[in-house]
């Protein structure tokens, strides 16, 4: 399950590690010298890069650490109290050390495999005997993949080794580059990606296009507090891109609405029964301990016995309740015994094992409807749930936050998002109150979509100037205090996961994860460690 090199990428890494030593011509064998000679070869290589970035069908390499990041926030518990939690516990409970990082090791390693492979492809494709249009497409997509890998690495680990050329065995010990340099490379790659993908048709489901590059530019410039740039790129996607908000919020994660009109980039999935191409997310984070007797049909075909990781907190539910936000709450959280939103007839009282579930809640965004379950003879590895990575609503919220710091109508943008879920517009708020509302709308809109940890690490409380995560976590954090005084009937009766979630957070070190010790060892100590680890 933990294998992290796929076909072409494995070939790439092997070829690069051996090219310093192999000089003998091998006839009839594919090497780096005779590959990339056709558009088909270039496309296959680029497709493998994109798959390597998304990996929706692999539960461990990227999905698990991304889910662990959610568990390190106020949105999610680990949740599963019936199985070994060693993969998730170090980061989610802030007891992580360089020698004990759980699944966070794998995302570091996997992304560098992908970066190395992207570098190889970019070097080779520039000289490929294919048309300029084909070359631009495959190189533009590869540049985006490299940028996205570095985007996650810099947000998880801070300064990381930065390289844009393929490495041989003699130059594998690179020092860390400052985060500012990593971000500069991300921006450069995305701008070049957008330029190369200009004119490439957008309606190519699962493929990267220029709007994905501009949208990621909006995100990374926001994260750097480059407010004018964040506003520029988010506005460009909103006003020039071919996207529009879904009228029904639930349709964003609908198994029958893959690559919907709001989606800028999605990890693809398929229920094809003779291939394991489905997303593992509904299994990894699905309800644990479902039983056919709890469904009206009393039919085992209706059951997907999930693993139960990453369960919503009552604190997140309370955030929805405080806004009377029924649609986004029910689209994001299903509480034990409640009807699954949008699936009320076939699942009117969704029940699962409370003994194995910390919060008595599951993430509705990751849910597979009963009608879809019934069409599948094979479920695990065949679940057809695409995973949105970037969507249009984020661009409105990015523009709102950038407008707050520059000039513009931030209220108008958050009210567009609120109107979609039938909430009254916010009026007459400004200053710190407005900024806190923007933060809150990001939480309610984008919960469980991979942004919460990065957001609370970067966002600053406008009253105290502290990072938001510092106000939530630690012995005096509001989220920790809430949990310790909570009377929630589910969370407080299952104490197999500690109720003091977040109490170990230390702002002197936990704004970043540590560099894996194994990577430092492999570098001979050239790679330094993050502070206080």
Automatic annotation (TrEMBL):
Transmembrane segments: none
One GO cellular component term: cell outer membrane
Domain SusD-like N-terminal: 36-222
Keywords: Cell outer membrane, Membrane, Signal
Domain of life: Bacteria
Subcellular location: Cell outer membrane
Signal peptide: none
CDD domains listed in its UniProt record: SusD (cd08977)
Keyword Coiled coil included in the entry's annotation: no
Domain RagB/SusD, residue spans: 347-533
A UniProt-annotated Pfam family: SusD-like_3
PROSITE patterns: PROKAR_LIPOPROTEIN (PS51257)
Principal location class: membrane
Record-stated family: Belongs to the SusD family.
Protein's recorded name: RagB/SusD family nutrient uptake outer membrane protein
